[in-house]
Amino acid sequence: MTKTITIEGVTRIEGHARITIELDGNGKVSDAQFHVTQFRGFEKFVEGRPLTEMPGIMARICGICPVSHLMASAKACDDLLAVEIPPTADKLRRIMNLAQIVQSHALSFFHLSSPDLLFGMDGDPASRNIFGLIRDHPEFARDGILLRKFGQDIIALLGEKKIHPSWVVPGGVNSPLTAENRDLILAQIPAALSRAARALDYFHTVRDHYPAEVDVFANFPTLFAGLISSAGLIEHYDGALRFVDEHAAPVAELTDPHQYPSMIGEAVEKHSYLKSPYFRPRGYPDGIYRVGPLARIILAERCGTPRADAELGIFRTRLGRSPQSSFHYHWARLIEILYGIEMIQRLLEYPDILNTHVRSRARPNRLEGVGISEAPRGTLIHHYRIDENARMVWANLIIATGNNNLAMNRGVLQVAQRFVDGTHLEEGMLNRVEAVVRCFDPCLSCSTHALGQMPLRIELLKSNGELCDVLQRD
Amino acid sequence: MCCSATDLEPASIDTLLIGYGNTLRTDDGVGPVVVDLIRHSPGQALAAGVVCRSELQLTPELAAIVARAGRVIFIDASVALPVGRVSVTRIAAQSMAACLGHQFSPPQILELARLAFGAVPRAWIVGVGVKSLAIGQGLTTSVAATARRLARHLRYHLPPVGQPAEHWILRNTSERQYNRCRVADASREI
Description:
The complex is a heterodimer of chains A (474) and B (190).
Chain A: E1 3-8, E2 17-23, E3 29-36, H1 42-45, H2 54-59, H3 66-81, H4 87-119, H5 130-136, H6 138-159, E4 168-169, E5 172-173, H7 179-206, H8 211-216, E6 223-228, E7 240-244, E8 250-254, H9 260-263, E9 264-267, E10 276-279, E11 289-290, H10 293-299, H11 306-319, H12 329-348, E12 368-375, E13 378-386, E14 392-398, H13 400-403, H14 405-419, H15 427-439, E15 456-461, E16 467-473
Parallel strand pairs in A: 6-11
Antiparallel strand pairs in A: 1-2, 1-15, 2-3, 4-5, 6-7, 7-8, 9-10, 12-13, 13-14, 15-16
Chain B: E1 13-20, H1 30-39, E2 50-55, H2 62-66, E3 69-78, E4 86-91, H3 106-117, E5 122-129, H4 141-156, E6 176-178
């Protein structure tokens, strides 16, 4: 007799999703699926809009990572204009992108995932949240709030607002950086570095407490993908798109963004609105790959900044060059926070950072453009086609979270098979199924939303629909 | 002094005005609109120690600036009020264990400020009854008129340059409501 468990309203992620777990007649998990239940449709409703509007429209995809969509969209538009943006604009875009990564990683690690790490996967759910965190670990929580604020403040200083800034435009950015604002950001760097270092110190005290979770939190060999610089350094804005195998050995590298369809295929599953991209040469679903902070630090030779490289050295000494468990996304995220702060400082100290030539102007010179950048959650691709009047006729988006869809699904199954007892449901079991998804920090809403108001309910049903057990979180 | 949405505010903040909502959902943006009207009112600079913030939503890092304020006024759209009505409600810090994301309510922001930074200012929510939350920019006519009156009202009672905010005590109005025609009279209360 088969049964189905449904986790409706996965918590502490960005967006709305559902998990179903299928049980066989012996109560053993036979299958599990991660369903993304919201539909967006940006690719269709931008048709007919002028390309100059695209960064502004595409930023509205997401209220958490609008900067990421700004970057990929602006790069696609640069491609349509066939312009090379001014060097100062390149640096300024990079600063904003890194600020976005710092604030987003801070939110993911401190607010969404650290309650699991500090209170335990079986901890009281009434305390396993940001308020419980502050009560029991006030300095840690304060560091999280202020690190996120550090990134948000930089975005606001550059783009005049934290969410949906319109400062990144086709051809560059629409205003230069002032000396006053540069100095304000630089003044915040030492405190931000200290907070990131404290977070890592704290993480090192708990990282070994979860061997069972490390063992099954999406722990299987896959490809990893992400941007990489020509020097083999970690890269978030430009560079080649590299795929490496489970041993970190390169298997493919894309230098022309227009050729991405030769490497990435997009499958659609009936159970989810989230596409399932795969590495085309290996077919579907064998072409499973992962993106995001863990992928980026696996495929790069090094970060290129001293503190981040020192921490990466500890990471690799402890886990090897290419650890396969997605539990290690948390550590990778902290390394990227450190890197982001260091790199922002480095970029701000370039002598040309205050240059006022920050935008190249041109009319459209191509009818097809592709922009690839790294969002906090992984590689993001915007692909546009326009007509002779510079109006959009077609768009395709490959969102960072989508790249991890196959791995998230397989990870949910792996955790469920280890922890879910089909005859009796427990809170910790449910939380672990969610926690493996949180490792990837998926951003499903791509918009502002009211997360946290939703009840969570798991029902254990017999095949005839009879309710066997229920677990409710209000 | 009025600052941008960054960590550049003065160390001591007498009054923090936070208007929040989505300006792309018509009247939902009334909070940011009111704050922007206050910020950009011609003729008179805001007093030192008065800070205006326009926010899409209340995010946890706001707790850092809230903790430094003497009083905080949150301005938000309300679907519970009749269109054009304004309510003023004193609020206190409140923990909600169910909050599992990045978006917080005003009482939760106060609680974050208390727990993380050890300070809770006096705080109020000014609610504005709205007509439409449809997709689109700009307020509906009646709500726009209320926003202008409310901005004048709040601005009039923010301390002028050179005078401390303590002279303009925001009294606890305990759920008292003001209809459209009484907004001007309500200036005595705020």
